[in-house]
Amino acid sequence: MESPTFVRFQLGAQLRKAREQADVTAEEAAAAIEVTASTLRRIEAGRVGIKGPALNALLDRYRVTDAELRDTLLSMARAGKQRGWWAKYGDLPSSYRQYIGLESAAEEVQTFETLVVPGLLQTPAYSRAMMAEDAFEPSPEAVERRVAVRTHRQELISSGKLRLVAVLDEAVLHRQIGGAAVMADQLTALLDAGSRWNVTVQVIPFREGAYASMLSSFHILNFADGPSVVYIEGLTGDLYAEGEDVRRCTVVFNSLRAAALSPTDSAAMIEAIRGALPVE
Predict the structure, then answer these.
(1) How far is it, in rounded angstroms, from Cα 141 to Cα 87?
(2) CB 121 within 8 A of CB 168
(3) Could you count the other beta carbons within 10 Å of the beta carbon of residue 235?
(4) Domain HTH cro/C1-type, which positions (predicted)?
(5) Which domains does the chain have, with CATH numbers?
(6) What distance lies between CA 248 and its chain's CA centroid?
(7) Helix ranges restricted to H, 175-243
(8) What is the pLDDT of residues 85-129, one digit of tens each?
(9) How far is it, in rounded angstroms, from Cα 127 to Cα 38?
(10) What is the mean pLDDT of the chain?
(11) ∠ CA(149), CA(167), CA(215), 5° rounding?
């Protein structure tokens, strides 16, 4: 069953495409359903759903007469109102909930990280140490809820429902988040993950020097039914991109994999760094 977030995201993309083809501005479309332009953009971004009457009004404004297409979009609107497992964690940022929903519908995630271990591969202790340093000082209870969410996300990997290709800068392996013992366990978890059929871990060594996108982490989510999406997390907001941006990021990701060590050599580096950690 497709994630409701994924359905909303795809519905929003279809509505944005229909609006642009009809040469209707966001302000004009928003007026047609009596909402603000910012609300319309949230609908088009898949952050919120849309009810049947409002959807029909938009499709009328966009001059969409294809009955089959209209029925499909109405079905998507109904499916998008369902709740995913992450909905019970009400204090999660909406952007994070949206990402979890898309991730749960993906068949493959290609991720590049320059500073930290990807969330899908983090141990609870590593996650806890990272979240405890949040500048907004979350309560211990809030930290534990976030760790629980991250652990739940990792079931996609353990169940084999998701393929993960992770490229890491060597710096990720040296940054002792949580201390040497936590980091040693995290490196062991990376080695264990890399031995799974559905996980590939590659490391770009320091000796590689400068390389493509070394200042920006990103994630490419590929779906069995629907176009791929690029996700880039930012301090002041998250960016989702499709189309040509996905193609460019895929070219960059392939370049990163070429610059990285092979999975076997990457595992050897991880093991060596783990072995050099001080015993606490």
Answers:
(1) 17
(2) no
(3) 6
(4) 15-69
(5) 4-79 (1.10.260.40), 90-276 (3.30.870)
(6) 17
(7) 180-194
(8) 877 877 778 778 888 888 988 999 999 999 999 999 999 999 999
(9) 33
(10) 90
(11) 95
Quick one: what percent of the chain has pLDDT higher than 70? 98
This prediction's pTM:
0.81
What b/e string do you get for 109-125 counting C-beta neighbours within 10 Å, with b at 16 or more?
bbbbbbebbbbbbbbbb
**Do residues 15 and 43 lie in contact, with contact meaning Cβ atoms separated by under 8 Å?**
yes
H or E element: which one contains 241? strand 239-241
Rounded to whole angstroms, how far apart are CA atoms 155 and 256?
27
Q: What is the CA radius of gyration of the chain?
A: 21
**Which residues, 6 or more positions from 86, have their beta carbon under 8 angstroms from its beta carbon?**
92, 97, 100, 101, 149, 152
Confidence at 12, pLDDT banded by 50, 70, 90: confident
Which residues partner with 108 through β-bridges?
163, 222
Tell me, what's the pLDDT at 200? 98
pLDDT at 216 over 70: yes
163-169 and 108-113 beta bridge pairing: parallel
Residue 270 has pLDDT above 80, yes or no: yes
Running DSSP on this structure, what letter comes out for residue 88?
G
80 contacts 87 by C-beta, under 8 angstroms: no
Q: Give 161's Cβ-side CA count (13 Å radius).
A: 12
* pLDDT of amino acid 55: 94
Contact yes or no for 244/229 (Cβ under 8 A): no
- Distance between CA atoms of 267 and 172, rounded to whole angstroms? 14
Sign for the pseudo-dihedral over CA of 31, 37, 39, 44: positive
> For residue range 126-149, what is the model confidence (pLDDT) as tens digits?
999 999 888 878 888 889 999 999
Residue owning tokens 């519905």 = 11
